[in-house]
């Protein structure tokens, strides 16, 4: 299962970088929960696909340049995927 998760995360980065928020949203679990780092403009957490997409679309609109660059390999850890990006 973890390799499948890696492929979902990889597809998410591709959709994000292409600006395809519809495709990105389809990859999210309907019950997704996003906890943002301290200092994020909106405190979160964001619960559910629609809330997460709304927040991420607002973030995309606010940034002049918007791409996620992977700076490490994907590591599959059980049912989770770990990687670093900027």
Q: What is the percentage of strand-forming residues? A: 5-15%
Helix/strand class = alpha+beta
Q: Which descriptor suits the 3D outline?
A: globular
Give the neighbour order of strands across the main sheet. Answer: 1-2
Order of helices and strands: HHEEHEE
**What is the radius of gyration?**
13 Å
The helix content is 40-55%
Mean pLDDT, to the nearest integer, reads 88
Low-confidence stretches: none
Distance between the termini: 26 Å
| Count of helical regions | 3
Main β sheet profile: 2 strands, antiparallel
Count of individual beta strands: 4
Give the oligomer, counting copies of the same chain as homo and different chains as hetero.
single chain
Overview of the structural elements:
Helices cover 44% and strands 12% of the residues. By secondary structure, it is of the alpha+beta class. Strand 3 and strand 4 form a beta hairpin. The longest helix is centred in the first third of the chain and has 17 residues, at 2-18.
Task: Quickly list its features.
two-stranded antiparallel sheet, 86 residues, alpha+beta, globular
């Amino acid at each position: 299962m973890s390799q499948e998760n890696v492929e979902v995360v990889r597809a998410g980065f591709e959709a994000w970088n292409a600006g395809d928020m519809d495709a990105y949203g389809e990859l999210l679990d309907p019950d997704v929960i996003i906890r943002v780092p301290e200092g994020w403009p909106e405190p979160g957490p964001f619960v559910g696909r629609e809330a997460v997409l709304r927040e991420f679309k607002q973030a995309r609109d606010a940034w002049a340049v918007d791409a996620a660059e992977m700076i490490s390999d994907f590591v599959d850890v059980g049912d989770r995927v770990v990687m670093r990006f900027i």
